[in-house]
Every structure is written in structure tokens, then in C-alpha cells.
Amino acid sequence: MTQLDTKEPPTPETPTDNRDKMKKNITVLRGIALVVGTVIGTGIFITPNSITRRVNAPATSILVWLAGGVMAGVGGLVYCELGTMIPVSGAEVAYLRKIYGKLPAFLSVWLLHFLLGGLRRSIGVLGFSKYFWSMFYENPDDVNWWLSKFVSLSVLYIIVAVVTLRPTLILKFIVFFTASKFAACLIIIIAGFVYLAKGHTENISVGFENTNTNPREWGDAWNGIFWSYLGWEQVCIVTSEIKNPQKNVPIIVITSVAIVTVLYILTVTSYHIVVPLDVMIQQGAVASEFGFRTMGEAGKIVLALTVVLSTLGNVQCTFLTQSRYIHAGSVEGLLPSCFSLVSKRYRTPIVSILYLTVITSVFVVIGGIDDLIGSASFTLFPFYVACAVGVFVMRKTHPDLPRPYKVPLIFPALFILMGLFVFITPFLGEDWEVSIMWCGVTLIGIPLYFLLLKNVFGLEFLKKWDSSVTGVLARIFNAD
Q1: Does residue 474 sit in helix, strand or coil?
Q2: DSSP labels for 323-373?
Q3: Which of 354, 362, 426, 430 satisfies CB 3.0 to 4.6 Å to 378 for a cystine?
Q4: How far is CA 250 from the centre of its chain?
């Protein structure tokens, strides 16, 4: 069989591919913890109320969460073939670059990381703050704005220091914080079904009654579901750091998605067993309300604390993966060379991490958690759909490539259909103007690509500036 050349000779525009210099610290257990830790963050504890409000029935809500798990699982299987066929870090960046060329890959980097990457991490930080203060205040919004932001940013910078200076330690922390996510979900699941065993069926027995059939509302519900399952693709971003990726990537993806789906369905079912529909629709901090109704004030504090740990783990996971994403984009020649720098001492992509710290800090300071969650997650799916189409393209153009895992073609076809649905339906929702805006922001990447990467105007100073900045940062951070 022929081998796909995943590395290209370095040119003045393309830095040397140094992804293999990063340590292979990620075992199967750590990989599963990474994916589960990334997916289970603020979503399962904040979005159930908005999704229930859109569909307006407990049983319908549970089925929507199940459909979201199926969508994530199918996407995971698609990425398994791509990730084992192109076994380098970067996920969409690497796949789109190899299949279609630089422009689609650049647009994915532009949107997913320079814009939405910081947004996702800021939601985790703000979710931490919300539940942290809920242990001391009846209404977390009553906390002094400056104090709240100071605590949020302090936690963010501690996480960044650990991610940068102790990469092995962060992997150990990921396993610990993933355990806290399991603890939060298990407490909710056990308490909910104990509540049901006592004969409380009044809430869940509503079933499908009064299900909302408005397609605009369903579009918004799917946007929330997609947000809550984001992270199933994260292990493919750090493929270069996984031990024996051809064997372990499929195991990690399939196991992780199955675990998350089961936990989500049982957790949401418990919410609907305990919390009445009208309260569920109004209550943003559903886990705290659930804890109070089942275990009193002590239960509210216990669940708030476990959610705090869960959100901390989510921020750690996204920092680990998103920094590798930007590093991969630079290695692929899609971003300035400085983002490809790896610390000689710590073997971490230090410049990418620092950039992400800055952009996340901005979102933490200026953003509100509800506004950030409701923004632009649907625009990710064009890139996911393009990767699924890429399975068909690669089967046609490179039929002899080694494929340690070969996905049945029904799965990428199904994922394409689901992806198009998720992308189109938000335009039918109440905030369709926001959808138009984010599409416009994405398309801004096209002129930037021709200006910065293709250099259509022959601006030689851009190349010199890139080289000079990279050299200075390499000396400052002792990186190569």
C-alpha cells in the first residue's frame, strides 16, 4: 500500500513540521478522559433548560439528547478513519489541508480557533464562576463584577501555567477532573431514580404532551444540543501525542462517545423526574435546583462543587487540545510561523497557549455566559461536513492508502445529512441575524487568506516580519 505523505518540505512560508517532537503522553485511559472531560463541561448543567423550553416536553427532550449522541457517535466514526489515515495532530485543519488544500483549512483555523476557541474556553471559566458563587449566594449575579472577573481570570491563569509548564501533570489532572464529572452525573442519576422509586412520576409522566413542532424552535434546540456534545473530535487534534494512534484512536473515540451519551441521557432523565416542566424551562442552573429539591441546601452545595470541578476540567481539556490545533495550523502553513514554536524544555506549543490565554481573557471580561452559548456553534458544521465528504473523496483519489479503521460509508452519508440540518435550521430561529453575522465573519477569512498566505499584493515585508517575530519569540521562550 502507498503511504500518505503527511509532512511537506519546509519553505519560507511553511515552518518545519515538528509535531512529532511533542511527547506521546496520551494513553487510552487519558485519551478517554480527555474526550469525556472536554464534552462534559457546562453544557449538561446549563443547556437542558433552554432545550426543554424549545421542545416543551420531557420525553421529547430526552429523545433529542439521544439523537445528539447518535450524531456525535457517527461523527466520531468518520473521524476515526481520517485520524488513522492521516495520523497527525490537527483534526479538521490537517484533514482539510490534505483533502482540499489550504483555503478550507485556513477558514477552519480562522473560525474554530481564532474566534470560537477562546469563546468555548471562556464559557467554561464563566460556568465555573457561576456555580462557585452559587455556593455562597442565592443569586450568583449579585456578586461584585470586579471580584467575579478577578476570580475567573485567576483560575484561568493557574490552568494556563500548568498546561504550559507541566504537561504531564495536566493529563493527570484531566483524569481527576473527569472523575468529578462522573461524580456530578452519578449523583444526579442516583438521586433522580431514587426520587422516581418513591412514586414521584408526576413530572416525567407528562411524556410527549404539548411537544413543540415549530421548526424554528427545533433549530435553536439543535444548536444547544450540538454545543453540549462538542468535544467528540478532540482526540484527533492531539493524534501526534497518542501512543499507537492507529489502534488507540478508534478505541478512544467510540468508548468516549458511548460513555457521554449514556451519562447525558440518564442525567437529563433525572432532571425531568425531579424538576417540573415549568421550573425546568425557567431555571438556568438546573443542577443546583435539582440538588436543592432532592437533598436540600447541602445537596445544592455538593452539586455546585462538583459542577465547579467539572468546568475546571473542561477548561483544561480545551486548552490542551485547542493550543495543538493552532500549532497544527501553523505547521500546515495556515498561520504565522511563531505559532509552530514548541518549548525546548517543556515540549508544549507555548506561543499558541499564550495567544489562547489572551483571547479567552477578553471573552471572560466582556461576555456573559448565556450570550456566548447562544452565538455561533452552528457554523462549525460546514467544516465537519467537509471532512465527512472527504472520506468519499479520499476513497476515490487514494484508494490504496492504509486505513487501520474503515468506516461504513452509510455513516459519513448520515453525518452529512445531520450536519446540513444543524447548519440550516438556526436560520429559521429567532436569532437568524446572528447566524448571518457569523457566516459573514467566516467569509472574511477568504480575503485574509489571499492577503496574508497567498500574498497576492507581493508585500515582502510580511514575510520578513513573520520571520523576525518568530526568531524573537523563539529566543524569549527558548523554543524551536
Answers
A1: helix
A2: HHHHHHHHHTTSS-GGGG--BTTT-S-HHHHHHHHHHHHHHHHH--HHHHH
A3: 426
A4: 18
- Residue 453: count of CB within 10 angstroms of its CB: 18
Which candidate, 383, 78, 100, 295, places its Cα nearest to that of 303? 295
DSSP 439-462: HHHHHHHHHHIIIIIS-TT--HHH
Chain center to CA of 414: 21
Over the stretch 57-72, which tens digit does the pLDDT of each residue have? 999 999 999 999 988 8
Nearest Cα to 426, choosing from 246, 144, 225, 183?
225
**Grid cell at residue 116:** 470560537
Model confidence over 431-466: pLDDT tens digits? 677 778 888 888 888 888 888 777 666 666 777 777
Which pTM was predicted? 0.78
Note the pLDDT tens digit of each residue in 338-348: 888 888 877 88
Report CA-CA distances (Å) from 116 to 159, 363, 395: 19, 10, 31
Task: State the Rg of the chain over Cα.
Answer: 22
Residue 210 in 3-state DSSP? Answer: coil
Which of the 8 DSSP states describes residue 207? Answer: T
Task: Please indicate whether residue 110 or residue 38 has the higher confidence score (pLDDT).
Answer: 110
Query: Which residue, chain included where needed, has cell 461523527?
Result: 75
| DSSP for residue 374 | T
Length of the chain: 480
Of the listed ranges 49-53, 104-108, 234-238, 316-320, the least confidently predicted one is 234-238
DSSP designation for 166: -
User: Cβ atoms within 10 A of the Cβ of 227, count?
Assistant: 26
Residue 5 DSSP code: -
| Rounded distance between C-alpha atoms, residue 20 and residue 241, angstroms | 8
